[in-house]
């Protein structure tokens, strides 16, 4: 069940929220949370902002996830 969830871990993704997006490596899924490393904040009309440390996103806020690269 949900075998695809494992294939996305440790891959570069774009996590799209309603008002912004984060690009980074999906490092872990901890209950209702997604953990991204090496992340960049992307907002409409603003320059991309590199984020320090890990970024934690609530899965309930995620609109969709794009897997980038090969």
TrEMBL record:
<protein>
    <submittedName>
        <fullName>Uncharacterized protein</fullName>
    </submittedName>
</protein>
